[in-house]
């Protein structure tokens, strides 16, 4: 691993942490708030590819697990990983690998990136809803329906991540999505 890779991973971890300092917005219907950190996860996936993106998200999740208050709302610690929001966090771990794999052999046209990001957003929300259903004993259909609340915001955040990705790629500040 090169110094540039380590630096980019550290910068993405910092970006995800900073996004966590923006207060979560409680929804009320379910014990899962709206957060901006999933935009950082998508951005790490796009900018760093499946390998380094996975390292960045894995490091971020490890910091949260050992107790650093890096999750939205200043949360952290092992208890978060058994709570109602844990499914989203577990999905974050897989997202860079999933998106990087899907984008690996493509030309990275706008529609390819957008379609892949939609798959990533759906994966995160589906995983979160499944875990929410298990931990809160909410019917899966109700958890999935409640998860629809997140889709417009997640797609908007993903659009911002795509725009940032395109701009940073033009500046040649980040390596290509998995070669």
UniProtKB/TrEMBL annotation:
It is a multi-pass membrane protein. Keywords: Cell membrane, Membrane, Transmembrane, Transmembrane helix, Transport. Its main location: membrane. It holds the Pfam family BioY. It is found in: Cell membrane. GO terms for molecular function: biotin transmembrane transporter activity. InterPro entries: BioY. Gene3D superfamilies: 1.10.1760.20. One of its GO terms (cellular component) is plasma membrane. The chain crosses the membrane at residues 55-72, 78-102, 109-132. Belongs to the BioY family. This is Biotin transporter.
């Amino acid at each position: 691993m090169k110094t540039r890779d380590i630096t980019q991973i550290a910068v993405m971890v910092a970006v995800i942490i900073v996004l966590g300092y923006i207060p979560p917005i409680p929804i009320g219907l379910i014990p899962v708030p709206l957060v901006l950190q999933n935009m950082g996860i998508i951005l790490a996936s796009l900018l760093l590819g499946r390998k380094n993106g996975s390292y960045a998200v894995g490091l971020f999740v490890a910091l949260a697990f050992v107790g650093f208050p890096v999750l939205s709302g200043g949360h952290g610690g092992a208890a978060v990983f058994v709570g109602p929001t844990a499914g989203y966090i577990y999905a974050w771990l897989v997202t860079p690998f999933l998106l990087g794999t899907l984008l690996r052999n493509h030309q990275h046209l706008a529609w390819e990136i957008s379609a892949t990001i939609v798959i990533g957003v759906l994966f995160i929300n589906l995983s979160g809803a499944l875990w929410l259903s298990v931990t809160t004993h909410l019917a899966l259909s109700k958890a999935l329906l409640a998860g629809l609340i997140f889709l417009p915001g997640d797609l908007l955040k993903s659009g911002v991540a795509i725009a940032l990705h395109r701009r940073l790629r033009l500046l040649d500040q980040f390596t290509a999505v998995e070669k």
